[in-house]
C-alpha cells in the first residue's frame, strides 16, 4: 500500500501519483508543492523508482523545514537518496527501533 500522507511537525503533505512533465531532456520523477502541501510522484515509474522518488521528496521536505537553500537541498537530496534507501531497505530492525515501532 502506498502512503498517502507525510507528517512533519504540524504539516501534512498529501502524497499522490500524477503524470508529471519532464524538464528538457529528462523526466521529472517527483515534485513537492509547498503552497498546497502536496507531493506528486510520476505515475509510470516502476515501484522501486517510485519509492526512490518519494524518498527524494521526503528529503526535500526535511531540508525545507531546516531552512537549507534549494540549490544545496537538491544536491543533498541527490547524494543521500540512494544510500538512505539502501539503509532503509536493509535494516528493518534499526528503522523500527529508531522510529519507536514495536
Ligand atoms: Zn529534487
Describe what you observe in this structure.
The protein is built from three helices and four strands. It has one domain: Orthogonal Bundle (Arc Repressor Mutant, subunit A), CATH 1.10.10. It has a four-stranded mixed beta sheet, with helices on one face. It is 46% helix and 21% strand. The protein is of the alpha+beta class and 102 residues long. It is globular. It starts with a strand and ends with a helix. The site of zinc ion (ZN) has 4 residues, from helix 1 and helix 2.
Helical fraction: 40-55%
State the assembly state of the protein chains.
Answer: single chain
CATH class: Mainly Alpha
Mean pLDDT over all positions: 94
CATH architecture label: Orthogonal Bundle
Helix count equals 3
CATH topology: Arc Repressor Mutant, subunit A
Please give a handful of descriptors for the protein shown.
single chain, 102 residues, alpha+beta, Arc Repressor Mutant, subunit A, 4-stranded mixed β-sheet, 4 strands, 46% helix, 21% strand, binds zinc ion
Short description:
The chain is 46% helix and 21% strand. With 102 residues, the chain is of the alpha+beta class.
Please describe the topology of this protein.
Layout: E1 5-8, E2 11-18, E3 30-33, E4 38-42, H1 47-64, H2 70-90, H3 92-99
Parallel strand pairs: 2-4
Antiparallel strand pairs: 1-2, 3-4
The structure holds zinc ion.
Zinc ion (ZN) is lined by residues 56, 60, 74, 77.
Amino acid at each position: 500500500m502506498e502512503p498517502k500522507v507525510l507528517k512533519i511537525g504540524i504539516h501534512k503533505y498529501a502524497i499522490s501519483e500524477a503524470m508529471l512533465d519532464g524538464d528538457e531532456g529528462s523526466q521529472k520523477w517527483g515534485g513537492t508543492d509547498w503552497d498546497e502541501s502536496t507531493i506528486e510522484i510520476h505515475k509510470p515509474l516502476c515501484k522501486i523508482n517510485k519509492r526512490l522518488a518519494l524518498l527524494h521528496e521526503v528529503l526535500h521536505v526535511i531540508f525545507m523545514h531546516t531552512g537549507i537553500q534549494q540549490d544545496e537541498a537538491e544536491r543533498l537530496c541527490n547524494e543521500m537518496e540512494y544510500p538512505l534507501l539502501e539503509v532503509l531497505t536493509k535494516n528493518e530492525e534499526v528503522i523500527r527501533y529508531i522510529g519507536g515501532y514495536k
